[in-house]
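The freezer alarm interrupted the setup, so I double-checked each line after restarting. Inputs confirmed:
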Amino acid sequence: MAGLELKSLRKSYGEVEVINGVDLSVTHGEFVVFVGPSGCGKSTLLRMIAGLEDISGGELWIADKLCNAVEPRDRGIAMVFQNYALYPHMTVYDNVGFGLKLAGTPKDVRDAKIRDAARILQMEHLLERKPSQLSGGQRQRVAIGRAIVRKPEVFLFDEPLSNLDAALRVDMRMELAKLHHDLGATMIYVTHDQIEAMTLADKIVVLNGGVVQQVGAPIELYQRPANLFVAGFIGSPRMNFATVTIQSLAAASLTVSSEDFEATVVPADIAGLKVGDTVTLGVRPHALATATSGALVGQVVLVERLGNETNVSLRLRSGASWLAVLDGDHQLRIGQDVPLRFEPELAAIFDGDGRARYLA
Amino acid sequence: MSFIRRHWLSAVAILASGVVFLVPFAFIVLTAFKDQKQSALLDFSWPAGNYLWSNIVEVVTTRNWMLLTAFINSSILTVASVTLLVIFAAMVGFVLQRRKTRFSGLIEFLILAGLMIPPAVVPTIWLLQGVGLFGKLHGLVLIEVAYGLPFSILLYRAFISTIPRELDEAAIIDGARPFDVFFRIILPLLWPVTVTNIVVQSVAIFNDFTNPLYYLPGNANATVQLTLYNFQSQFQTSYNLLFTNIALITIPPLLVFLFFNRQIVAGMTAGAVKG
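Predicted 3D structure, all chains:
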């Protein structure tokens, strides 16, 4: 059983801290996705797990073995790179078998394993070709084949689909999900693509500035983001935010208002908050709906009619821009004032430190 | 009319380069056909008779078949030096390009110094005598490697920078040790620039005259370029034999060049544009 345990893992280049004490535990067979904006350290973290970057502090345990100083080849990992990193001078067969050859696997065993991997990935007909004769999707397949042939404890993927075109990406995404299901291996996957993260992951790790922002199931991150960063990062289009003032407090809710909002009651954990405090109200674009009279009124700036839904960019009275995604088709004129409402249960309150205040 | 106007410059250029490159060749070949008397005129005339074969026999058998010894020596020297150069220069280039340390600057300075500072002959001989390599063929191999390294390293390093680092990393993940990464992944990918190196350095070493003259004295140690002195002296020079000799020792570099010609250009331009 190959779980993975990161204990206050650190990485610094001289003075610059890139990874700032990451704690994470991954159980066997989990599909974990690291997401975050560019430069958040997600690739660095993956490369530390792979052994391509030194660990400056903390502990890395792979399958109950402390791996801080273990060579990559002895960690029981395999990695798939963004640009595939196939050996250009070798055929697909040799590419896939390179690791086994280095490990001194007997020729017949090696041959069986290579053909087995090729069968799983449906690339038996490609084995005699060179990488330059393959398409992007086929190269990706070979790179994955090179990983699975070694029967690793943990698979590492570094943005493996970002070099593929959109249609192929969807196909490969499904194949990866199927592969994970078939192999039942632990997989760690780095991406900046939310859809990949939401669809593939058992568990998403949101990173920003080398710090873990939130760890959880995809839908949990969408419905209950732990802080402003996660709320703004997960979900597309992104969540609307407004700065509001607390008017009154009740046992499990608070009433907020601002220039843009009429007094609105939102359920929240009120511990430590008092009347007059400034908090942030977050509402997802999909949670907004038109109404005859609503909590807020926005002036239409841009309308995108997609048929099944309508994306409306709005300017609120304070000048803030919000986006609403309305179900069905709506005929709206630019410049028109639209009253909107939302279910208070779907709104989130973030306190002055940016932490979400959900009811337990 | 417009054809002439458009292409006259190209035609002139082709003619000029033909004259510059072919006339010396023609002169060598023509003189090799002449007898001693006619060749002493050193003119561009048609040979009065065909003396080529007797010239060749004389050149080859002179001084107890010295030319054969020289060909063997030069071949050993060239093959050994170029082999070592290719392996060492590729290794140095690989490490220099991939690993930045605080010594990188110093090493790069030393490489440039090796290109710019002319080698000092007397101290080198003194050093060779000290380690017992003076007048030995393997001593000269080391000299040629040392003189050739800086240029080869520069070629290799520029080329290695076009090989994505992910390839090394993929190999490391696959379980490759540093030597596996170099010999199984990097070195095969360096083939175009290796060909360039082989051609440039083997021609230079094979045609080297001064270094064998300084560091490899003695008849048994002669290299091909030194055999030219057999037919040249202060009071008498046999131009027919001299030019026959030149023609003979020009053949091996010419073959190397023809053999690798198509691949040289790839090595020279690869890295200019990332493929």
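Quick read of the result. Helices of chain A lie at 42-50, 92-102, 107-120, 136-148, 166-183, 194-200, 218-223, 228-233.
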